[in-house]
Specification:
Arc Repressor Mutant, subunit A; single chain; elongated
């Protein structure tokens, strides 16, 4: 009778997963800022785990682009360069444009009601300058199209992208500028979607996402001109 191949011990898998979840949450919520060094010895003592599970967790975080592991120097919370930030927005533009095209024919009356309510909330939050609440309503608006698109792989890629961009939400909002303009852009996307015009809705979404990209490119162009 063939022997069953040895399986990793469940408690070990659970341990590195718990360390991974803990560090990932601290990074995404900003408790570990970009540039923070993650020294293995100090973290092992702080979290009460051996360095094996810790290294496994750091390796997973590195694969997601959240940390950089430096040989013989430990890991560091990754910060995005201007070029990387721009590249992420370019990928976001492509993913969301496709998501909108796929979602529009699938949107239900309930979806349209939710999207309209979210856009109304964004207008209220913008008028009150409640930036964090505006940002959450904005995220929920975009997420509704992603949920309705029906493409699981696209959704997975988008979640991973948001994990990297989410830490820079204040920078994103600064680059976007006027929140009232953002509300108008969302309203235009919704109108096109309600008409069933998937191409127009996707184009408006791409234009909306391109605003921070144009603002990010502007300093480089001005420097080149000088």
């Amino acid at each position: 009778m063939a022997e069953i191949a040895a399986q990793p011990r469940l408690e070990n898998l659970t341990l590195w997963q718990r360390v991974y979840d803990h560090l990932r949450s601290d990074i995404l919520e900003g408790r570990l800022a970009p540039g923070t060094e993650l020294a293995e010895v100090a973290l092992s003592e702080q979290l009460g785990v051996s360095r094996g599970p810790l290294r496994e967790a750091l390796g997973r975080l590195a694969a997601e682009g959240l940390v950089t592991v430096r040989p013989r120097r430990g890991a560091v919370v990754r910060s995005l360069s201007e070029e990387e930030f721009l590249e992420l927005y370019q990928v976001r533009e492509a993913l969301e444009g496709m998501a909108v095209k796929l979602a529009v024919p699938r949107l239900t009356p309930e979806d349209f009601d939710v999207l309209a309510e979210l856009n109304r909330k964004m207008g209220e939050r913008a008028a009150r300058e409640e930036v964090e609440q505006f940002f959450q309503a904005n995220l929920d608006f975009h997420a509704r199209f992603l949920e309705a698109c029906g493409n699981v792989k696209l959704q997975e890629m988008y979640r991973q992208l948001l994990d990297q961009l989410g830490r820079y939400r204040m920078r994103s909002l600064t680059l976007r500028g006027n929140l009232g303009r953002s509300v108008s852009e969302h309203a235009a996307i919704l109108r096109a979607a309600k008409r069933g015009d998937a191409e127009r809705a996707a184009q408006l979404m791409a234009d909306h996402i391109r605003v921070p990209q144009r603002r990010l490119r502007r300093p480089a162009k001005e420097a080149a001109a000088r």
